C-alpha cells in the first residue's frame, strides 16, 4: 500500500525542501494513513519537519468561516499553548474583522501569512486580533493553509511563531505551498473512507431493524440511500394518490418540500450548537424534527446522525416516512414489489442464501459453502419463504428475478 500511495505523492511537484529524506519519510507516512488519528499525527510530524513553529492548530470541518465556527480544533502535541475554549472565544470575537476582507478578495487562496493582510506589517500588533488574541500567547507571526470547498473553507492550519523566531520566509511559504496538494490528497482519501464507512453503518443499522420507508440524505440533501417504500411515499406525498399512480416513483422522486425545509432548519440548529468545545457525538444528542405534510396523513421523523470517529464528514439526515392507515393507498396505488424491495425484507445473511438458491445450488451445496448444517439452511430458507410469501424454490427464483 505504501508503495502505491507514494506514487500518488510523487505525482505532485515538490520543492527541494521536501526532497530531504526526513520530509520524504513524513510525506510517505501521510499518504499511508487510513484513520484520522493517524492522519493528524502524521500531519504534525510533517509540519515539524518542513517549517519550524511554536504552535500548530488545525480547525476541521468548518461550518461558517465568517462566524469562525468549526466543529473541532486540534493543537499539535508539541504546541506551547494548546488551543482551548478561551482561545476559541477570542478568535470568534476578533477573527472575522481581521481575516474576512482579505479572504473575500482572495477566494480559494491555499496559503498566506498575516503580513499579507496589512499594508505595513510593522503595524500588525495594533489590530484588535493581535491585542486580544495573539499577544495573550506571545505570538507575533502566523502562516495559514486553507482547504476550500466551493466558496467555503473546510479545514485550515495555523502555524504560530514568537517574535524571536521571526516571520515565515519566502522559502518557507513555498514549502507550505508545496505540501498543500499532498495534504489535499490525504484529506480527499480520508473523506472517501469516512463516507463509505458512514454509508455502510447506516445500511447495516437499517437492515437490522424492521424494513421501513427511509431516506438517508447527506449534508447537502443529496440522497445516499432511498428504500423502495420511501420512493413510493415521496411520490404520493408530492403528487397525491391519483397522479402518483401514473408515474414510476424513481422517475418523479423529489424530496418533499416540508422535509427539505425541516432538514435546512436542523442543519442551522446543528451549526449553532456545534462548538469546538462541545460538538455533539451521538444521535441522541443531535436535533430532530417531526414533520407533517400540507395534505393530512403524511408525516416524517427526521434526525441527524453523526459518524462515530469521523472527523471530516458531517452528519447525515435520517428521514423516516409514513402515512396514516386511514389514507394508506391500496396495493394498486403503490408500485408492485420489485426485486430490490423484496431484498429489503431480508437480512444480509438471508439475501446471500437466496442468491445461492437463485444460482441453482442445492441445500447441501449451500450448507457446504456457508459452513452451516443442512438443517440450518432448511430453517433459514423456510423463513425466507414466509417473508416473501412464496412456497417453493422455483417461486423464490421468479420473485427475485
Mind explaining what this structure looks like?
This protein has 401 residues and is of the alpha+beta class. It has three domains: 2-193, GAF domain (Beta-Lactamase), CATH 3.30.450; 210-327, Beta-Lactamase (2-Layer Sandwich), CATH 3.30.450; 339-399, Orthogonal Bundle (Arc Repressor Mutant, subunit A), CATH 1.10.10. The chain is built from 14 helices and ten strands. The protein has helices at residues 2-10, 21-30, 36-50, 85-105, 128-132, 170-208, 228-239, 241-244, 257-273, 339-343, 348-358, 363-370, 374-388, 393-399, and strands at residues 55-64, 69-75, 111-113, 141-149, 152-161, 214-217, 223-226, 288-292, 298-305, 316-323. A five-stranded antiparallel β-sheet has the order 2-1-5-4-3, with helices on one face. A five-stranded antiparallel β-sheet has the order 7-6-10-9-8, sandwiched between helices. Strand 6 (214-217) and strand 7 form a beta hairpin. Helix 3 runs antiparallel to helix 6 (170-208). The chain is elongated.
**Largest sheet, strands/sense/barrel:** 5 strands, antiparallel
CATH superfamily of the largest domain: GAF domain
Strand order of the biggest β-sheet: 2-1-5-4-3
What is the share of helical residues? 40-55%
**Cα-to-Cα separation, first versus last residue:** 39 Å
Please state the second-level CATH architecture of the largest domain.
Answer: 2-Layer Sandwich
Shape: elongated
Q: List SSEs in N-to-C order.
A: HHHEEHEHEEHEEHHHEEEHHHHH
Q: Tally the helices.
A: 14
The overall average pLDDT, rounded, is 80
Level-1 CATH class name of the largest domain: Alpha Beta
Amino acid at each position: 500500500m505504501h508503495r502505491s500511495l507514494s506514487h500518488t505523492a510523487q505525482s505532485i511537484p515538490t520543492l527541494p525542501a521536501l526532497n530531504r529524506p526526513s520530509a520524504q519519510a513524513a510525506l510517505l507516512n501521510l499518504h499511508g494513513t487510513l484513520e484520522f488519528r493517524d492522519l493528524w499525527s502524521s500531519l504534525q510530524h510533517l509540519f515539524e519537519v518542513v517549517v519550524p513553529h511554536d504552535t500548530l492548530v488545525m480547525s476541521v470541518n468548518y461550518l461558517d468561516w465568517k462566524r469562525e465556527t468549526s466543529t473541532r480544533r486540534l493543537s499539535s502535541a508539541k504546541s506551547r499553548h494548546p488551543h482551548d475554549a478561551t482561545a476559541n472565544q477570542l478568535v470568534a470575537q476578533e477573527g472575522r474583522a481581521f481575516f474576512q476582507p482579505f479572504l473575500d478578495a482572495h477566494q480559494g487562496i491555499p496559503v498566506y501569512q498575516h503580513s499579507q493582510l496589512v499594508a505595513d506589517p510593522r503595524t500588525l500588533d495594533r489590530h484588535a486580533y493581535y491585542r486580544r488574541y495573539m499577544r495573550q500567547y506571545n505570538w507575533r507571526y502566523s502562516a495559514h493553509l486553507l482547504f476550500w470547498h466551493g466558496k467555503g473553507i473546510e479545514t485550515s492550519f495555523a502555524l504560530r511563531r514568537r517574535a524571536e523566531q521571526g516571520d515565515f520566509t519566502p522559502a518557507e511559504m513555498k514549502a507550505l505551498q508545496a505540501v498543500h496538494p499532498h495534504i489535499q490528497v490525504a484529506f480527499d482519501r480520508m473523506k472517501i473512507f469516512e463516507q463509505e464507512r458512514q454509508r455502510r453503518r447506516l445500511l447495516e443499522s437499517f437492515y437490522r431493524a424492521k424494513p421501513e420507508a427511509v431516506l438517508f440524505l447527506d449534508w447537502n440533501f443529496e440522497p445516499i440511500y432511498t428504500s423502495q417504500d420511501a420512493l413510493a411515499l415521496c411520490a404520493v406525498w408530492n403528487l397525491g394518490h391519483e397522479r402518483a399512480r401514473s408515474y414510476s416513483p424513481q422517475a418523479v422522486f423529489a424530496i418533499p418540500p416540508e422535509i427539505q425545509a425541516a432538514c435546512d432548519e436542523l442543519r442551522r440548529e446543528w451549526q449553532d450548537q456545534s462548538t469546538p468545545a462541545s460538538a455533539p457525538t451521538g444521535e441522541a444528542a443531535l436535533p430532530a424534527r417531526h414533520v407533517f405534510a400540507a395534505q393530512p396523513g403524511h408525516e416524517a421523523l427526521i434526525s441527524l446522525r453523526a459518524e462515530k470517529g469521523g472527523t471530516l464528514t458531517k452528519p447525515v439526515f435520517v428521514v423516516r416516512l409514513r402515512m396514516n392507515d386511514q389514507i394508506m393507498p391500496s396495493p394498486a396505488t403503490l408500485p408492485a414489489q420489485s426485486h430490490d424491495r423484496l431484498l429489503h425484507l431480508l437480512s444480509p445473511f438471508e439475501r446471500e442464501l437466496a442468491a445461492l438458491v437463485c444460482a441453482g445450488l442445492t441445500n447441501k451445496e449451500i450448507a457446504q459453502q456457508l459452513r452451516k448444517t443442512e438443517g440450518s439452511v432448511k430453517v433459514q430458507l423456510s423463513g425466507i419463504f414466509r417473508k416473501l410469501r412464496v412456497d417453493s424454490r422455483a417461486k423464490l427464483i421468479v420473485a427475485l428475478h
